[in-house]
Amino acid sequence: MPTLFERIVTGELPGDIVYQDDEITAFRDIEPAAPVHVLVVPNEPVATANDLEERHDAVVGRMLRVAAKIARDEGIAESGYRLIVNCNEHGGQEVFHLHLHLVGGRSLGPMLPRPRKG
Ligand code: 5GP
Predict the structure, then answer these.
(1) Residue 94 is part of a domain; what is its CATH number?
(2) Which contacts of 105-114 are long-range, i.e. CB under 8 A and separated by 24 or more positions?
(3) Which domain holds residue 8?
């Protein structure tokens, strides 16, 4: 079964695509957490970060570079942004097709709430 994101990559499902090449597709998150919230995915699915192999090194590096290009195109490169990869249950991963969240366009606050001391 193709993943949800594969179906967006191939055009079977609609997606607000902001970038696409033969290896990578980027589209706007359906439920954005910030003014800019774009998902950057490899066209060929990899389920989680745990499933990455050496052969994926180039595409993962390219995902970072494409995310930085999109940040520039969206006008948030200078103000800043965050890149997030969630993995499995504790990481809050919902879609099992590796993806990089590019979020920005407002101050995002601390990376994670820290546990209270004492
Ligand atoms: P995860 O929790 O797996 O890291 O992130 C999955 C993301 O996919 C969520 O931010 C969610 O809003 C987004 N998402 C889920 N279904 C769709 C969809 O059909 N289209 C788009 N564009 N994003 C989706």
Answers:
(1) 3.30.428.10
(2) 105/34, 105/35, 105/36, 105/74, 105/76, 105/79, 105/81, 106/34, 106/35, 108/34, 108/81, 108/82, 111/82
(3) 4-104
Q: Which of 3, 7, 30, 86 to mutate to test the pocket of ligand 1 (most atoms within 8 A of CB)?
A: 30
The answer to whether residue 52 is domain-embedded is yes
Q: What is the pLDDT of residues 13-35, one digit of tens each?
A: 999 999 999 999 999 999 999 99
Distance of CA 67 from the midpoint of ligand 1 (Å): 16
Q: For atom 21 of ligand 1, which residue has the closest CA? A: 30
Domain-embedded: residue 83: yes
